[in-house]
Each structure stands twice: as C-alpha cells, then as structure tokens.
Amino acid sequence: MKHFKNIFAICLISAFVFSCKTKDVVIASQEIDDIVTYLASDELEGRDTGSEGIEKAATYIENYFKDLGVKPYFDTYRDSFTVKGKNAFNVVGYLEGNDPNLKNEFVILGAHYDHIGFGEEVNGDKIANGANDNAAGVGTVMTMARYFAKTKSNKRSILFTLFSAEEKGLLGSKYLAETLKKENLNLYIMLNFEMVGVPLVGKDYTAYVTGFDKTNLAEKMNEYAGKKIAGFFAKAEEFRLFMRSDNYPFFKEFNVPCQTFCTFDFTNFEHYHKVGDEADIMDFDHMANFINTYIPAVRKAVNADTKEIKMNSSK
Fold first, then answer.
1. HEC sequence for 204-216
2. 217 near 259, Cβ under 8 Å?
3. How far apart (Å, rounded) are the C-alpha atoms in residues 187 and 106?
4. Distance CA 172, CA 164 (A)
5. Angle 229-195-143 (CA atoms, 0-180°, nearest 5)?
6. Element containing residue 88 per DSSP (H, E)
7. Tell me: the pLDDT tens digits for 231-246?
8. Which superfamily does 33-303 belong to?
9. pLDDT at 9 exceeding the cut of 90
C-alpha cells in the first residue's frame, strides 16, 4: 500500500508539473507589442517583397526562432523563390512532435509577413507599415511558436510558416504548398492568421473563419476552447475571402481543412493598404487575449488522437 501511495504521489506531482508547464506560458501584450511595432516600423519601409525592409523582417523572425530552439524545416529557415526577377523567401520554422506516431502528421500555423511597401502619401508619410496587415498575424504565429517551444506540448509536428509575396497574389504560400505536396507531407490542417490586430465589435465570437461551411473547424475550435471563439461572417463568403488568403494554396494542393482566422470585418478598421496602418493603433491587449484564447484550442487540435477536424462531405 505504501508503495502504491508513493507511485500515486509521483503521478500527482508529475501531472501538476505538466499542468504548470503548459499553463505558465502566457503571452503578454508587451511581447506582441514589441514584435508588431518592430515589423511595422518605418525602418522596414512597408516590407515589400524583394526589399531591404523584408530582409530585415525575415532576419528578425529567424533570430526569434533560433532563440526559441525552433529549427528550420529546410536547410535554412528560408524557402526561396523569385518574383519578377527579385529574390523572395518564406520563413519556415519546425517543431517536431513528441508522439512517435502522430509526429508524422503536420499542422501548419501561418501568416504573411510582407506588405505593399509604399502607399498614397498622407501628411508627408508614404510608408504603408502594415501593422494589422499582417504584422499582427505574424506576431500571432511567432508567439504561438514560443508557447509550443517552451511547453513542448505538441504530439504532431508543427510548421510555423511566414509567407512572402502574399500581396503579389499568394505567391509565397503557393510556392511552399507545391513544394510540400511534392514531398508528400502528411498535412492534417493549416491554420492561417490574417489581420487580427483590432477586435470585432458586436459579434458573439472572437474571430471569423473563412470557408466556414467547408469543414467542421469552427465547431471543433469552439468545443476545444469551451466557448465560441470562431464564427461565421457572411461578408467572408460574399467577398470570397477563403480564396484570397494564404490558406487557399494549401487547400488546393492537399484538400484538407486549411482556413483563415480574421478579426477585420470592413467596419472596424479603415486603414487597409493605407499609410495609416500603424502599430500605435493596434489593440495589443486584444491581441494578447486573442492569442491566449486560441492557444488552448490549437493545442487540442495538435494533440487530438485522431483527425477530428474534417472536410464536410457536401462542400
């Protein structure tokens, strides 16, 4: 009996340590502020594909991954291609799963880190900094990488993918999706984050999901979170947003759930592709809450024993 009690005590302590380990990594608003403020700074000149500014952004993301111990998926972090004669590159970090079987399945967390460079001048300002579009999404993926790297709580392997040339027509995600398909990557789901820097107003969910009816993703994310964090937005269907972000090339190549989460609803942000898209108008408390709300649901998706997120057969 004493031996049994000792084993029971050890199990309780181990469970407590694991619980603390996973729960103690909370993303602070200051961390997301630091990331978005740098990526959307004038120094990076709007991060146009092929520019010196996007080179600085890529180096910043690479160093962040290195510090975390997130490895490059390829020989380096850069997945290189060309756009109209200019060098371009996605930045891809890799965290191997810790389950001997499930680690062969992959979850992709993605966002584009490029923007348009310069826009129509307003009060002497020509730099389209792209804070909401899409430094906010990049910061979301980077801090999720920190969470999983610190907690080591992923049974499946995760690719943290930051895309270039989204603004040129989803060229970076298209190139990477085609590359991974040729490698026969066993992709479970692709979750993309786009324009999440300001909250939705008057909605009963945290973010909307593009291609809502194509899969049961929203249903499962809400179940995993224990509350409604993913919802339906009619304009997403009207404007065909499912096909206009970096989830779409992966959907085309793999025919598995690949969708985007977004909090921009055309009424709560007036600086799309304008020079006013600055870091100082982002809501970093909202962003920290968004990330910390989504992480438990993403973790459950990554660790589900079976592929619970599925395509809807009628779609």
1. CCCEEECCHHHEC
2. yes
3. 5
4. 5
5. 75
6. strand 86-95
7. 999 999 999 999 999 9
8. Zn peptidases (3.40.630.10)
9. no
Going from the C-alpha of 312 to that of each of 113, 171, 223, 248, the distances in angstroms are 30, 27, 17, 16
Question: Using CA atoms, how far apart are residues 297 and 220, in angstroms rounded to an integer?
Answer: 8
- Residue 216, class by beta-carbon neighbours within 10 Å (0-12 exposed, 13-18 middle, 19+ buried)? middle
Residue type, 228: K
List of residues 6+ apart from 238 with CB closer than 8 A: none
Alpha carbon distance 277, 280 (integer Å): 9
**pTM passes above 0.90:** yes
Length of the chain, in residues: 315
> What are the helix and strand counts (H, E) for the chain?
9, 11
Per-residue CA distances from 205 to 78, 86, 191, 267, 307 (Å): 35, 41, 17, 16, 24
State the pLDDT at residue 72: 98
Distance separating the N- and C-terminal Cα atoms of the chain = 57
Distance of alpha carbon 114 from the chain centroid: 14
24: enclosing H helix or E strand? none
What is the 8-class DSSP label of residue 264? Answer: -
Bridge partners of 80, per DSSP, are: 89
Which of 208, 283, 299, 287 has its CA nearest to residue 245? 208
Chain segment 263-287, per-residue pLDDT in tens: 999 999 999 999 999 999 999 999 9
SS3 89: strand
Supply angle C-alpha 69, 73, 79, rounded to 5: 120
Measured distance CA(144)–CA(295) in Å, rounded? 7
On whether the CB atoms of residues 145 and 137 are closer than 8 A, the answer is no
| Cβ-based neighbours of 109, under 8 Å, separated by 6 or more | 141, 144, 145, 158, 159, 160, 161, 191, 193, 298
Q: Is-contact 250 173, C-beta < 8 A? A: yes
Using alpha carbons, select from 275, 207, 282 the residue that is nearest to residue 245: 207
